[in-house]
């Protein structure tokens, strides 16, 4: 998973770390933080997205499948999301790279490179909170795939 900018709140970092440690029982998982663009507050929104996009795309290799967390993306139930994950793993992708961008979204180049866009909710959450929510949902997806008793329908 790639995220733009560090997670500020300790309680969120603790929650993210909790689910990352659980995820590692199922898959090889990395949580990579791309630093904020230097001088980003002085850039236009378009220029900031372009600079963040360059940093994101620098982390992607040829066999990777880029999946963006985007408010306009496809909505899933937790069970549907687990099926999505299973299909992606079966597709032969070298790696699935889920990306949580900066506050203004993604550059056109990142959208072009992405295989999919998914949404956590029609509601708006801070990018910091999305990190925790999505890490938990990844963990939940793997417990569903393994038939474990974490998820209840």
Characterise this structure:
With 153 residues, the protein is an alpha/beta fold. The chain has a single domain (2-145), classed as SPOUT methyltransferase, trefoil knot domain (Alpha/beta knot), CATH 3.40.1280.10. Helix content is 42%, strand content 18%. The protein has a 5-stranded parallel beta sheet with strand order 2-1-4-3-5, sandwiched between helices. The chain is globular and about 50 Å long. The protein starts with a strand and ends in an 8-residue tail after the last helix. The model has no long low-confidence stretch (mean pLDDT 94).
Essential attributes:
153 residues, alpha/beta, Alpha/beta knot, 5 helices, 5 strands, Ribosomal RNA large subunit methyltransferase H, EC 2.1.1.177, rRNA processing, Alpha/beta_knot_MTases
Summarize the structure.
The protein has 153 residues and is an alpha/beta fold. The chain is 42% helix and 18% strand.
Count of separate DSSP helical elements:
5
Q: Count the domains.
A: 1
Q: Give the C-alpha Rg.
A: 15 Å
Instruction: Give the N-to-C terminal Cα separation.
Output: 26 Å
Total number of beta strands: 5
Secondary structure layout plus pairing:
Elements: E1 2-4, H1 10-23, E2 32-34, H2 45-57, E3 64-75, H3 78-90, E4 95-100, H4 108-113, E5 116-119, H5 127-145
Parallel strand pairs: 1-2, 1-4, 3-4, 3-5
Helix pairs in contact: 1-5, 3-5
